[in-house]
User: Which sequence fits this backbone?
């Protein structure tokens, strides 16, 4: 009986660790879809505030960098043929200094390239 105790404890520990990893790891497919949806939303919000944008290219999938932090993603924004590094998010926009161009009432189409290589043109 004494020999079985370490084996039982080892099995219980393995089960607990497996369940914990699943709970904290999340579903990578649904997380990927959520990140792509957040990229699209971030692009739309950025376009509401910045005019002259020709292209937005997301350079990573994005996520929350820490506890309590908002979701954000790195991107390269092209304005007037010039590329600018930016951090875009639902609650955050940070970038290198951008040209002061007000967004147009009817903005021209903008090419958006997502982190997975897919793309679309946003109105």
Assistant:
């Amino acid at each position: 009986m004494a020999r079985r105790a370490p084996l039982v404890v080892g099995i219980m520990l393995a089960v607990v660790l497996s369940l914990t990893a699943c709970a904290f790891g999340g579903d990578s497919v649904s997380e990927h879809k959520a990140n792509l949806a957040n990229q699209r939303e971030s692009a739309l919000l950025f376009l509401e505030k910045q005019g002259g944008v020709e292209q937005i290219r997301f350079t990573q999938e994005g996520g929350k960098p820490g506890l309590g932090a908002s979701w954000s993603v790195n991107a390269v924004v092209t304005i007037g043929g010039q590329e600018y590094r930016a951090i875009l998010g639902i609650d955050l926009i940070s970038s290198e200094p951008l040209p002061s161009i007000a967004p147009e009432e009817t903005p021209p189409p903008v090419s958006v390239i997502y982190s997975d290589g897919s793309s679309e043109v946003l109105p």
Q: What stands out?
A: The two ends are 71 Å apart (CA to CA). The mean pLDDT is 87. The longest strand covers residues 72-79.
